[in-house]
Amino acid sequence: xxxxxxxxxxxxxxxxxxxxxxxxxxxxxxxxxxxxxxxxxxxxxxxxxxxxxxxxxxxxxxxxxxxxxxxxxxxxxxxxxxxxxxxxxxxxxxxxxxxxxxxxxxxxxxxxxxxxxxxxxxxxxxxxxxxxxxxxxxxxxxxxxxxxxxxxxxxxxxxxxxxxxxxxxxxxxxxxxxxxxxxxxxxxxxxxxxxxxxxxxxxxxxxxxxxxxxxxxxxxxxxxxxxxxxxxxxxxxxxxxxxxxxxxxxxxxxxxxxxxxxxxxxxxxxxxxxxxxx
Length: 278
What we know:
Layout: H1 3-8, H2 15-22, E1 29-35, E2 42-45, H3 57-68, H4 73-84, H5 88-99, H6 109-116, H7 118-124, H8 144-152, H9 160-172, H10 181-191, E3 192-193, E4 221-224, E5 227-229, E6 232-240, E7 251-258, H11 262-271
Helix pairs in contact: 3-5, 4-5
């Protein structure tokens, strides 16, 4: 067992990680845990590996839009749908508000891409230098421009360490984010979910609450942004438990990015708190 796994055994059920290690699949998973009662305490496996975030990228878009865009009922409706329901159409509208409408003429793609890159440069200035977030998530209609970005520029990508650090900053409302307390509380309300102990499928409502939340104790509160597509099943967030919890700290950030395929990825996420001592 590696030192990282030994440390993680004090927080989560690591049997699934040990199985992945034995079967050679551990490189398909990135996992980062931060104890928010001791924020310098960070445990990570493959935490600096770039992976496709799927809808986890919407957390970055949401924070940026709350900082840069004027408050309105329309914006709140779009952000609520994008975060609560992980609605891709709403996410596409948010990107358009931040960067402008998509060009139709390929001659304009390069110029428009420079506008799209503000979805990255905003975060690069905050230290997330390797973030890639310039193309929209799953599209309701084909977009030649977004396809061009993916083919000629880059796919969206994050690291679990980066996402965990963002959650930590959001939780304490780090001034570097530029969020007012009211906007931070609004976002946390959208992110909050009751842990759901039902094995839902990705197409079912409340699926996000049934990943890391699947084996959490009833008293736990979950703030989460998940993402899934093809072989990618990701979850990220803050878990708030109680001080009597023997393993999990009162407030912990946990981020898991996996490329295990849908079924194995879901089972892996749901196993992380299985049989933990509460």
